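Technical annex B. To support the medicinal chemistry partners, we prepared a structural model of the target in complex with thiamine diphosphate, based solely on the information shown next.
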Amino acid sequence: MTTNTKGTKQAGEVDRRHALHLLKSMLRIRRLEERCAELYSAMKIRGFLHLYDGQEAVAVGVLEALTKDDAIVATYREHGHALMRGIPASAILAEMYGKQEGCSRGRGGSMHLFDEKTRFYGGNAIVRGGLPLAVGLALADKMQQKNRVSCCFFGEGAVAEGEFHESMNLAALWQLPVLFVCENNLYAMGTALKYSESVMDLTSKVMSYDVSSAAVDGMDVLAVEIAAKSAVEAIRSQGKPFFLECRTYRFRAHSMYDPELYRTKSEVEEWKGRGPIKTFIEKMKGQGTLSDADIETIEGDVAREINEAVAFAEACTWEPIEDVARFVYSERRMP
Amino acid sequence: MTDDQKELRTLTYRDAIREAIHEAMQKDARVFLMGEDVGRYGGCFAVSKRLLEAFGPERIRDTPLSESGFVGAGIGAALGGMRPIVEIMTVNFSLLAAVQIINNAAVYLYMSGGQFNVPIVIRMATGGGRQLAAQHSRSLEGWYAHIPGIKVVSPATLEDARGMLWTALQDPDPVLIFENAGLYNMEGTLAGDAGAVDIDKAHVQRAGKDITIITYSANLYKSLEAAEILAKQGIDAEVIDLRTLRPLDDQTFLASVAKTHRALIVDEGWRSGSISAEISARIMEGAFYELDLPVERLCSVEAPMPYAKHMEDAVLPQVDKIVALVRKMVGANG
Ligand SMILES: Cc1ncc(C[n+]2csc(CCOP(=O)(O)OP(=O)(O)O)c2C)c(N)n1
């Protein structure tokens, strides 16, 4: 199999342009999240803030496999997915500032990024809230003979919820093109998988619904990309759902309020050693695909992008409070 | 009683609830706490911090994310002779367990012709005001108060945070305890021997003669603050903390209205089909001829909660709005 600039087809083979693209993608997320943490301390961002550090390879790898016609449903830990989907960092940050130029007009905040143009159906903050929505989006596509995939991201915590199982069954029963991406970062807030699941192999859960599945190292962006591409290919060719478990780790606290009593510092450090950005750089440098100068250039570009986004958010405006009840009901007619 | 026991001590609302849980677990071996992250994480609002060390994982039981499942299991355990305290992180997620609460807990006694009572206590955080946006800012206690078969209490004070739990556990029927998340850090003093309190009477928190402000939970403090401002302007407001939304102690506010002849209800819930509508209706039914002017309500704007602070502030009842409304009602000019 050959590789091309459209992406990775096989492990270990990646051309320079694509490697640069993947690295830059992961760094854009990482630096955005770091800035968010700072802005939270500076009280520019408020409410709950759930950062994605450590899990970047999942959003980056999976979104490589989707086209612009596909739909995304994500959770409250969705800045990275939103950014990869093409929502500008400026609109994301403006949203977290609560400004009306934000991608949800300041109504949603960090947990509720939305974008109609890129078919980004939210930031959902009810654990497992998005799964049935993805099923329904796919149902609509199927009923309208649209050849699109609906991709739903969620944490392993959602697997214990009834609606996870209901969604799997519905998607399989009705043969719907849904890509279920479970980001298994081992903890749901402070509850480790072993305290929440009687059977810890998550792919085994979906077998009884006849949903195809795969588990992949979620710290390896190339592996995620390859797995997601073959999952999407299977979905498109067979018109059936697919469950992709990405085994990953969240480096930071669950949210900004978490004292992290449930895990040790050494465990976190160990996982940081396997971080998706760190290992990708090591691998690409080892293969001679990337140089330090490349990384420097990327870092410069990313820093510029984030700085501009912050400046944009600062300069944005507050929605007049008279409009606080706007969008409780629709203003536009249905086509 | 020793002096030690009488001595006032400083603690938070959160500490008061933790003490209540601790005491209940010590006094009654049938009592256990279960919910998401109550153990190893220490409780999402740190209410149950360190209880795991004290009582072990059997009685401080972490559950998976399965609201319907573990609330239902709590109901089953209550039917089976235990005295579960089930913690749902917030009222927002209680909707996932609504069918268990409303269609099981609330009806088992009745459906079984009085045979099976459900002595469960379900605690949950409620309320907005922390920029958590629409899915995390609901105030649905009034909505639960619509349901016969359950009791709904909402402690605003440290005494009630400390004392309502034990009384709720003694109740043969399901009791829902709503803790406004904005109150957890509230610090105050409590008697060393503070203990169980009733859960069926409203309290007059501030006596006054010009108007009755009826409220509960976190809005008690906004109302009291407004009352202090109004006092400086020569308006003497009586402030009532409902404490319990079902059964509603209407005698206390009807007696107050008979004295002040004016009533304002302050509630974080929405006004349409709400507990404030119910209170207003009871005043119509029970004190119509005592009123000098129609009952007024200050509720949240009828919109999901926005994230941006200035918009969230605009949605919620605020002290200045209470002051302005009271001044209008008592006919104060300028
Ligand atoms: C239905 C519901 N219950 C509880 C919560 C509170 N809560 C928010 S995130 C979370 C942990 C979820 O863990 P997981 O699904 O593994 O995702 P992660 O946070 O690790 O990305 C919990 C319990 C919620 N938002 N929704």
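Notes passed to the chemistry partners:
The two ends of chain B are 53 Å apart (CA to CA).
Residues 203-330 of chain B form a domain with the Rossmann fold fold (CATH 3.40.50.920).
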